[in-house]
Amino acid sequence: MNFTYSLRSIGWADVYIKVNNSEVFIDASYLSEPLIDMVRAIERLIPECAEEDEISEIVLFEWDSEPAIHRWVIHKLSQDLINIEITLFVDGITESTGEVLLNEECNFKEFVDLVVNSMEKIIRKHGIVGYRKQWNAQDFPLSSYIKLKHYLKTNNRFPIDVLNKDEWIESISTNINDEVEVILNFDERIL
């Protein structure tokens, strides 16, 4: 399996995914938020990364490729196995019949690891502020990156403190030092 996500030019990302013998190249546009949509969808498949009422076994998101649309459907088959289906709508009309470019099963944690690895490469190359300028849209999905990376390293939820839980005035916080430690602890494979 292989997955890469990199920023090519202002507002464009190059994405490559290969699962088994199927491979897809995607030019993702800033008209959608491909990285944010993907990592937030992945979080919903992981109980340690999502709120209880947000956990799902199937997630769907769409990437704009101007004028094409790539629809991703990720189905969690078991704790270790997912099915990824990517359908291309050449004219951007998702009500039409699209062309299935990829429909494969793969190891879930390996896929998440490759996504987080791509995010680390982006941070190292562009920085957090630089990402926003390069992407010409939203900020880098930093909290998703921290939660997913922490999950990969510990198999646990990132520590969150909740004061006055389930009361009218609830206060939620995390430790910035813990967050910075996750950010700065780059995977040696990309150094």
Structure, explained:
With 191 residues, this protein is an alpha+beta fold. The protein has one domain. Helices cover 31% and strands 33% of the residues. The chain has 5 helices and 9 strands, in the order βββαββββαααββα. The strands form 3 sheets. Strands 4-5-6-7 form a 4-stranded antiparallel sheet. The chain has a 3-stranded antiparallel sheet with strand order 1-2-3. A two-stranded antiparallel ribbon has the order 8-9. The protein is globular, with a radius of gyration of 17 Å. The model has no long low-confidence stretch (mean pLDDT 92).
Largest sheet: 4 strands, antiparallel
pLDDT averaged over residues: 92
Helix and strand composition category: alpha+beta
Q: What is the CA-CA span between the terminal residues?
A: 21 Å
Instruction: Please count the beta strands (DSSP E, at least 2 residues each).
Output: 9
The helix/strand order is EEEHEEEEHHHEEH
What is the number of independent domains? 1
Shape: globular
| Secondary structure: helix percent | 25-40%
The radius of gyration is: 17 Å
Order of adjacent strands in the largest pleated sheet: 4-5-6-7
Strand content: 25-35%
> Which residues form runs of ≥5 with pLDDT under 50?
none
What's the helix count?
A: 5
Core attributes:
191 residues, alpha+beta, 4-stranded antiparallel sheet, 3-stranded antiparallel sheet, 5 helices, 9 strands, 31% helix, 33% strand, globular
